[in-house]
Every structure is written in structure tokens, then in C-alpha cells.
Predict the structure.
Amino acid sequence: MTAAVTFRSVSRHFGAVKAVDSVDLAIAEGEFFAMLGPSGSGKTTCLRLIAGFEQPDGGEISILGQSANGIPPWKRNVNTVFQDYALFPHMTILDNVAYGLMVRGVDKTTRHKAAEEALDLVKLGGYGARRTGQLSGGQRQRVALARALVNKPSVLLLDEPLGALDLKLREAMQEELKGLQKRLGITFVLVTHDQGEALSMADRVAVFNEGRIVQSGAPEDIYNRPRTRFVADFVGSSNILSPSLSESLSGGRRWTSLRPEAFTLEPGDSRLSLTGTIEASSFMGAVRRIALKVGDNTIHANLPAGATLPAEGTPLTLHFAPDALNPLEDAA
Amino acid sequence: MTASLAPQSSAQDSLASRFSAALWRSPRLLLLLLLAPPLLWLGVVYVGSLIALLAQSFFSFDDFTAQVTYELTLSTYAELFSPANFDIIKRTVTMAALVTIASAILAFPIAYYAARYAKGRWKAFFYLGVMLPLWSSYLVKIYAWKMILSKEGIVSWTADKLHLSWLLDAWLSLPVVGGNSLSVSATGTFLVFVYIWLPYMILPIQASLERVPANLIEASYDLGGGPSKTFRHVLLPLAMPGVAAGSIFTFSLTLGDYIIPGIIGTSRLFIGQAVYTQQGTAGNIPLAAAFSVVPVVIMAFYLWGAKKQGAFDAL
């Protein structure tokens, strides 16, 4: 099977800044792939390299087995949903969606029919005659999606597509995007700085930092077995235990990560424990988050919201399973 | 009572502060005060003189007594359609249209560069370069162009050195656009008009291009529109308000100008020169007024047509 997109030691430099630094990756056909990282980590530049807005300074990019180096964006069967949607303000919604077909010379009746269908697909049937200014942010997002999908791209690129939406809408769109991807079978490449978005939607996640991929794999692997302190900290929240603290717990003298939800109040069989004083305790809705001072370290734990806890400043012992300790690759 | 509400106001600033407080309480009064001077100027001086002009054009001129007959008539307007006068109108409108088209074609790439690529120092350089000609005297520039375009000028000299004199001579031997030298040809008039009005086309186009987000161009590329289709379907429609604004300047300024065709060009008159001679030498104020109304009417039609074509849709 040919990969939808492959990078072979691809680099893109802006002056002295290595935006993308010798990246290798392979995105399978029909896969929902997420590029996750903080701003400036090179994920967006990778997306722009696939779209053709940037050309690599080194290495080779292929799309569906064919080299894409030197191919301009308008000759790639790849479409983008832009971060701020980039809808054409001087056209109606229908003409926006039909634009890709129009520039390819598809006649008016056919392209308008296809655009109507694409609008139905994103649940905006009947909105064709409106102008972009008459739509809400969520609706514009759907138009941008329809405008890309109507071209039947082999790869759909999504650049922080949900960033501008409010929380409720974002969660609804996450499910919808994932459903759409499953139904259409198109390769989706999502760029996001929101780890929740990447974990919930993608089949596979690549975590970017400083122009490189630091870890890639299934969302569960990334979350449960982060390889470095950066990944452990960036994907979800983690307690990073210093080499000396983890040595006292399990014997290995190395950096270790421990998720806050690994803790319980009840000591089970063969459980490890940490004892400290409660520094702070805050109600988060589903959980109660406490900060526990253990020596020089502050450990965060998510406990059931209904748990009865001693007052702040008093000692508390928390328990966790030994395999919750995740040794990291960083030098001790 | 008031004093207890405003304990901080002292005796000295009480008048000024009471006045500004009164303005704050009644925004309408503030608006009226701010708008009164410009409204007086526009209403009385500007519109008033336009109406006086319009009124003049409905009187007639007696050629024998050289006196204006103050009776309402359309005969002066009928005179505009005499072959000699109508030629002047046609000539001026054609020139204005050509100057506008040439200015738009020249201005667009310059404006595009300035809006998209020029940053910091280069942007300042661009503004300076575009505005600098506007700082020097209009007459000096036109006389300079007369030198440049004259038979002994640098254009002829360059053509000669490049062994292209035959080309220049062939052009000058053409009817209508030709003449003895560029400085006494319609071509010369055209070149100088384009030179003088170009900044008025560049600046509005540049302003409208500044407002086109760069990612719309990328979106068009992404959807399969190559550069030429992107220009036609995205960039040009979005820059159209700027082009329309610029063309209003170049078109109307060319319609009304009488100095450039008087110094550079043939002896055939333009509307501005016709107005000048009719009201000055001939004293035929009604005909001069009727001629002045022509550009106003043409511009009204022009704007109406531009609006119908959707030139202001992206405004």
C-alpha cells in the first residue's frame, strides 16, 4: 500500500531558524493523522509543505508515491481547511464551495449541484445563497470544510480547524469530523496545539518540538507511555518525578512520569505510595485536584470529586500501581 | 447642587469644564458644532457655485452683441452637439478612458508589490517614490516632459542611438496619434497624463490590496486556481474598489485638465481648453458652463456603470 504522504529527512529553514529539521514521516492512506505541538514547533510548516505553500530546503516529500518537490499547490490533489477559513468575501457560499470546480472548468450546473451536495454533507444545505458575513464561526468552518471536500482530495489538511470555536461547538465538531473521515475514507492530516483534540480524533499522533517529531504513535501510546519529559508534560498533564524521587519509589534512578489520575486514597495490594502534606485542593467538577508537597516536589493528583479529604496543610498518603510509573528517556 | 456633584472642579476651569460637560451630555450639539463649518463650506461655497454654473448653462450667448441673454433655453446644450464641439467631447473622453486603462495596468503591479512584499524601509521608499512627484510643481513637471519629448529630447536621442528612429518616425507619421514630434502629438499628451495621474491610481489600489488577506490567495492556489485564475477570480475582484476609486481620479482629472493638452499636444482642443477659451477669450459663459457640465454628467454615468458592474461590492 502506498503511503498518502511521506517525508524523507525533510527540512525547511527560515534564515537561521530550523522550522522543520530533518523530519521523516509516513501517513497511511485513509488515516486520521494529527500533528501536535506547541506554536513554533514546525507542525504548521509541515502542513504547508504538504499543501505546497512552502518548498523543502532539503529532503523529499511524496504524495501518493509521487514526488511533490517543485509541484505548485494548484497542481496537488490536496486541499486545506485554513485556520481562519479564508472564505472569499466577494462570493456567495455556493460559489465559495464551487470554486475548486469552477477553476477546473466544470460547468455551472454540475458544479453548483456538487456544491449543494457538499453543503448537505456538512449540514448547511440551503445556505448557498448567503454571504460569508452572514454566517457564524461554526458555519464558516463547515463551509471551509465543504469547499475542500467538494474537490475529492486524496489528502485533506486541517490547520487548527477548531481553534476559533467555543468549547461546546468544538467538541461537537470533533465528533463530526471524525465521523466524516470514517465515512469518506479520505486521509486527514490535522494540525493542532490542543492535545485533547489530537488524542480524541486521530488514529495516529506525531508530537512536534523544535522542528522535529519527538514521538509518534497511537493516542493511547502517546498518552500512557510518553518517551520524554516534553511529551509527558505537553500531552495531558503529568507529574515529572526527579531521578532521586523515582529511585526511592521503584529503584530506577531516572526521570519518570506519573499521571495525576493514577492516584487513589485506598491502599490496594502491591501498591506504591507517596506521603506529603496537602498544599492546595480545588474542585474541578468531575474531579478534585490536589497538590501534595512531597519533600521538595509538588505532586498533583486527580481524586474523585466526592472523596473526603483532610484539611489543607495536613498530611496525606496517596497510592498508585507500580506500572503507572513511566520511565523517560531523558538523561538523569 | 451642581457643586456638590462635581467637587473637583475649581473656579478657573469651571466654564470650560461646564461647556465640555454640556457637549458630553448632548452628543447632537457636539456633532452640530463639528459639522457646521464643513457643511457651510460644502453647502454654500461648493454646491452653491455648482448650481450657479448649472444655471449659467441654461442661458444663451448672443454672438452679435457678445452679451449673455438671461432667458432659459436649451440652445447652448444643443451647441455642444455641433460637429466641432462634439469632436472635443469625444476626443477628451477617449483620452480619459485610455489614460485610465493605461494607469490601471501600470499601477497594479507597483501597488501589488507595495502591498504584498514591501516591508519597513522599502515601504517608506515606495511611498516616497510615489508621492515625491506630487511635491514638485505641476507646471515644472509638464515643461520637463516637453523637453523630454521634443525633437531634440532624450526620447528621440535614445531612439536614434538604438537605431530605432524609424520606429518613432513611423509612429509619428500615423494620423490622430502622430505629429511633428512627440511633444506636439496626442501620444505625448497621453504619456504626460499617465505620468501625472499615476500616483492617484497607485495609492487606492495599494490600499485595497492591503486589505486582501494573503491566505485568500493561498486558498485559491490550494483549490486548484493557478496564478492567472487567482488574479481574475480573487485578486482583481477584491481590488476592484481600489481600481474604481483610482479610475475616478484619473478619469475625472483627465476630463477636466486644460494645461497638459495646452502645453504638450496638438492644437486640437480638449474640454478643459474649450471651457477656458469660451469663458476667457470669447466671453461665452453659457457655453463654457455647458462644457463644464459634460464631465459631471459623464462621471455620474461612469459611477453608475461601475456600481452596476459590482465594482463596489467588495467595499
Observations:
- The first helix of chain A runs from residue 43 to 51.
- The interface with chain B takes residues 51-53, 72-75, 78-80, 82, 84, 86-90, 99-100, 102-104, 147-148, 151 of chain A (CB under 8 Å).
- DSSP finds nine helices and 17 strands in chain A.
